[in-house]
Amino acid sequence: xxxxxxxxxxxxxxxxxxxxxxxxxxxxxxxxxxxxxxxxxxxxxxxxxxxxxxxxxxxxxxxxxxxxxxxxxxxxxxxxxxxxxxxxxxxxxxxxxxxxxxxxxxxxxxx
Length: 111
Description:
0% of the residues lie in helices and 54% in strands. The protein has strands at 3-7, 10-13, 18-25, 34-39, 45-51, 57-59, 67-72, 77-82, 91-97, 100-101, 105-110. The chain starts with a strand and ends with a strand. It is mainly beta.
C-alpha cells in the first residue's frame, strides 16, 4: 500500500496559479499510474489529470490547456500545476494511485 500526502492548496484569485504536490512512499513510485481528482462542495469526485507509468498523460476537458501534471521520480512526487484558475476549480484535490488516496488539499478560487 502506498502512502500519499498532498500539499500546496490555498486561496487564490481567479486567473491565478497554484502548484499541488503529492509525495508518495511505500512502494516503487515510477511503476504505477498517478492521478489527481477533485471534489467540489455538494458534488462527486471527478478525475482531473493522470499520468501512467509509461508517461501517457490525460486531462479532464475542463482543465486542458490550464493544468499540467508531472512527476519527479527521484523525489517520489507528482505535481499538478494549475494556471488560469477559475472559481469552478474550487474543491478538495486528492492524489490517487490504485486504491490509495491522499487526505486531500483545499483549493479555493475567488472571483
